[in-house]
Amino acid sequence: MSALCFFTHVLEVLDQKGRTMKRRRGVALLIETSNAYARGLLEGIVAYIREHDEWSVHLPEQERGARPPDWLRNWRGDGIIARIESEAIANAVATTRLPFVDVSAARRLPGYPWVETDDAAIAKLAANHLLERGFQHLAYCGESPFNWSRWREEHFVEIANRAVGACATFEAKSRFAPGYSWNRERSRLRRWIERLPKPIGVMACYDIRAQQLLDVCRESNIAVPEEVAVIGVDDDQLLCDLCSPSLSSVIPDALGTGYEAARLLDRLMSAEEVEPDAHLVAPLGVATRRSTDILAIDDPDIAKALRYIREHACDGINVNDLTRVLPLSRRVLESRFQQLLGRTPHETIVEQRIDRVRQLLRETELPLAVIAERSGFRHVEYMSTLFRRRVGVPPSHFRRQAKDRRS
């Protein structure tokens, strides 16, 4: 049994004074731990257990789509929460004849309680996020073998058609198909993104697909977010921050989904009636990062200026540096910035630097002097004054607040 696998089969036992102790229910969790969404489900289940009666939990270490564990055939537990994404898992769970709750969109066992994210609400959040940034062209990059991807696509395309009249789509070939090759798939994805009208906002069905899309854009020298803005789903913070640029993502309520699944299973194990329908959990919002942090701009010179600022603001550049890389005078440059963005090039440079200060305060213990240098400020006093003016609190106070939120 692996280190992640723990199980205590507890029958009615006597404590040291001879009193009968309450029997713990045995619950199997057939949920992978290899991705952020699944780990969020487990956190939600843990939260429910902490608030209610303790369960004896069996959590095998397994990957998504893995075969059912051998011990399940002879297991004498009370209930199961499972990501039922294959016929093998479906058959194994059904054979136990135990109460169970499904937390997969695959719907291998219809007619039983099923808890999932609200894909219509996810698609709406992503579409509105891109539309609010002024994009007149929208696209969806999906993974057709999965229900959740098709459902998100259906709702996203519907919203896009109403808002801007059209929506391009990319249908990925199944990773499980014979002869599948990621190199060929990447070439298809590159040709698709190169042919799309620019600027365009793209919803990827989940963060891994979005990461692949960002990689293809970089290979094709397509500016993100100036030409292609990308938003994913799952808010896998490590993956989103490792993307270049960092990835905006819809935040599903994975914890709430796991909590609801545990609540329903508890009712089933108590022989209560539970609706054998979908129990959908709404997303929490959008985590905005650099991959969509822009307004859609048809002016190629200003789009180039914004890209240059994003890449070099912390190198100490000023407005004169912009005029050296653009075929525009300072007066024309500032006029177009005001017209399109409602702010000056200098204000845009400062805003980028302040964002970098925020990041370093949240994620590091670097001294303020080092943070000033790495953010493009010559003097720490000026950085602190400007930060307080724009953020509302001094840098040291902001850092303490960030620590308090993490603890």
List keywords for this structure.
Xylose operon regulatory protein; disordered N terminus; Rossmann fold; six-stranded mixed β-sheet; globular; 407 residues; Arc Repressor Mutant, subunit A; alpha/beta; 15 helices
Q: What this model shows, in words?
A:
It comes from Kolteria novifilia. One of its GO terms (molecular function) is transcription cis-regulatory region binding. Helices cover 46% and strands 13% of the residues. It is of the alpha/beta class and 407 residues long. The chain folds into three domains: 25-116 and 255-281, Rossmann fold (3-Layer(aba) Sandwich); 119-252 and 286-292, Rossmann fold (3-Layer(aba) Sandwich), CATH 3.40.50.2300; 300-406, Orthogonal Bundle (Arc Repressor Mutant, subunit A), CATH 1.10.10. It has a six-stranded mixed β-sheet with strand order 7-6-8-9-10-12, sandwiched between helices. Strands 2-1-3-4 form a four-stranded parallel β-sheet, covered by helices on one side. Strand 9, helix 7 and strand 10 (248-251) form a beta-alpha-beta unit. The relative contact order is 0.10.
Question: Strands, helices and their partners?
Answer:
Elements: E1 25-30, H1 36-51, E2 55-58, E3 79-82, H2 87-96, E4 100-102, E5 114-117, H3 119-131, E6 138-142, H4 147-164, E7 168-171, H5 182-195, E8 200-204, H6 207-219, E9 228-233, H7 237-242, E10 248-251, H8 254-269, E11 278-281, E12 285-287, H9 300-312, H10 319-325, H11 330-341, H12 345-363, H13 368-374, H14 380-391, H15 395-406
Parallel strand pairs: 1-2, 1-3, 3-4, 5-11, 6-7, 6-8, 8-9, 9-10
Antiparallel strand pairs: 10-12
